[in-house]
Write a structure and sequence with these properties.
- By secondary structure, this protein is of the alpha+beta class.
- The protein has one domain (about 10-220).
- Helices cover about 35% and strands about 15% of the residues.
- It has 10 helices and 8 strands.
């Protein structure tokens, strides 16, 4: 990872089963990274999971096939009339009527048309580029540490934005466009759940480039495992002692 602006080594201290993945949207063809095989046919969310399981960098191009709405979310293609009218979601049983599915499209983030021709995926410990979005999949205990690294030095609130379909828009495109850290539960989203991409207790956290330095720095500086999280009694004892100490100190401020 020589030549990178950020030090991604703090990610190595996280207890995760799958590697964090750096994602970059590119107009120009990447150099020194292998393309995804032309015969591969999968959804955009499956590509993220593939990057985790392969544990090696690759890139997807508009020349590759994509089996869901990934190219639409990336601005490479447009919705058909029957898609935009909401017919798919009604038939899947996700929505009562097509109008409910149709209403959802106003919320779904998409890249501007023809601005992305390639998407690079790389495990964090093999990065040769600064990612636009860093995606971490973790169980709740570890996800809490990552989210706390967002707020530790900033006081930023936790926010989760998602829809029951088109999950790739929320863990790849939304953080990039909005500049906000986002977290979702893949089990709540039709595609990732149906494709059985992650265990049901997985949390996906997506960190846009402007937040990556803060999260990495805080992961290095802060205490990962808090004493109050060891047991209920430990929580009550510590909290009670803090209140007692502050009450005493406040007598003579």
């Amino acid at each position: 990872m020589s030549g990178l602006r950020n030090d991604y080594s703090p990610l190595l201290s996280l207890d995760v089963d799958l590697p964090p993945i750096g994602v970059k949207f590119s107009f120009f063809r990447p150099k020194d990274i292998e393309p995804l095989e032309k015969i591969a046919e999968m959804s955009l969310c499956e590509m993220l999971r593939l990057a985790q399981s392969r544990n090696k960098p690759f890139y997807f191009s508009r020349e590759n096939a994509e089996t869901c709405v990934g190219k639409i979310i990336l601005g490479m293609e447009s919705f058909t009339g029957f898609e935009m009218s909401g017919q798919i979601g009604e038939r899947l049983g996700v929505f009562e009527e097509a109008r409910a599915n149709n209403n959802l499209y106003q919320f779904v983030p998409r890249m501007a048309k023809d601005t992305v021709n390639y998407v690079l995926f790389s495990p964090a410990d093999q990065l040769t580029f600064e990612p636009d979005v860093l995606v971490i999949s973790a169980k709740p205990d570890t996800a809490e540490i990552v989210m706390r690294a967002v707020t530790y030095s900033t006081g930023e609130m936790y926010k989760s934005s998602c829809t029951p379909v088109m999950g790739c828009a929320w863990f790849l495109v939304y953080p990039y466009i909005s500049g906000e850290v986002n977290y979702i539960l893949p089990a709540f989203v039709h595609g990732p759940r149906g494709r059985e991409l992650w265990p049901s207790d997985t949390v996906l956290i997506s960190i846009p480039y402007r937040w990556i330095p803060t999260v990495l720095t805080n992961l290095k500086r802060m205490r990962h495992h808090l004493p109050s999280h060891e047991s209920k009694q430990q929580y009550y004892d510590e909290f009670s002692q803090i209140l007692k100490d502050l009450a005493e100190e406040s007598k003579n401020p």
